Amino acid sequence: MPFRLANLDGRAVVVDTNDGLHDLESVSSGRLGNDPMAALEQPALLASITSSLDPKAASTTVAAALAAARLGAPVPRPRSVFAVGLNYRTHAAESNMEVPENPLVFTKFPSCITGPTTDVELPTRFGDYEVELVLVIGKDARRVPPERAWDYVFGLTVGQDVSDRQLQFAAKPPHFDLGKSRDTFGPTGPVVVSLDSFANPADLAIRSEVNGEQRQSDRTSNMIFDVPTLIAYLSSILTLRVGDLIFTGTPEGVGASSKTFLRAGDVITSTIEGIGTMTNRCIEG
Asked: What is the mean pLDDT of residues 31-56?
């Protein structure tokens, strides 16, 4: 049974078929608490609860919660946040970089993770946007073969890998981690969606806009290293834990390629088919 998990005012909520929000602790009769992180341990129970929801009992809707900026990061306290660079050939080409032979992995420090409507603070004139599909790990994964990799994914969400290009390339070799981990540089949301919600979770439309102008548009099936490859690769090196996030890379159209960097007042809109849309306003940092 498909489910969608969200974070409303810091409490775990599940989303019904009409986009209504239900407090998870209440609708589970206390079997699950109010912490969104704890909910990641119980996907079967989440699915069962979602199937029995009464839409008339919803406290609010996803749209209303987004408009009121009440939705937070659906996975608010990940242990680790991995990200993959140059994972679309078109993005590698626009960056004038070679296509990597193995996944180009870096970390975004968890402190940068924020919600789907959180303002992005820009202490730089070289801020950039990168819409990405984000994997949420659902069970500990160590040395997982590619053919079993999807079994370790709790669900999918939308992410923005916001970057400070000047900081990113301030050293040689570049320090991607710092350049992509300033406070507020990791918006995620609006919900985490279970894999059975999609006809094909490996082929989703992904796009971004800045101030209503489309900047990026592609399909996740065009990744160089697909989801099974990424999970198999990472888990061959270290154990992935429940709630870890993997940003899977961005398609072409980033600001650095056209020198159209973000400015205070800009609005970034990030959308992935079947998951939803984030809207993040840029402010002075």
From this structure: 95
